[in-house]
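Moderator note: this is an archived Q&A kept for reference. The question asked for a predicted structure of one protein chain; the sequence and the answer are reproduced below.
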Amino acid sequence: MIFTEYFINRQIERLQKASGTRRPCYRALDDVRHILILCDVSDWKAVETCIQTLKAMKKSVHVCIYTPEQDHSRIWDYGYLLVEAKKDIDCWGFPKKYILEQLRHLPADMLLDLTASEAPPALRYLMLRHPVTFKVGAKHASGRDWYDFSIVVEDGAHDIPYLFRQILNYLQVIRSKNP
């Protein structure tokens, strides 16, 4: 049970301000070998299709999946980090240290956030804490810009297949100067 999200939201504010000072490393899709996807378990069917597309492109894919309940109904791949709210999130809304360590050790050239605008603060916190230099996701019209590269979407819109196609399209067009 989470008592309040006040403290994690304050920490997210600090992390977001600090992330403005880091130097992003824009990458073309050809330059990306390892992708870390953040998602909610309720969107799993749509995200699974995205994962298969990336694997078909010979990308190494790791996934951080947030679930409000214990989820033993699926067999998760070894590259998937399951974050269960009742087990892995403390009473102040922060992910426990072992989750942060596991996430930090997932290799990534790009973090792809496929969560909705109302994603749990713990997922935003995890996204901001990951050391990857290229973060990609949706920027909602009235929301914050969390990412180095974002696709602007209407408020309340959460169409993962459309967002994923747009991101892939633009990343294939980008020509990176970074190795």
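Archived answer notes: The chain has a mean pLDDT of 87.
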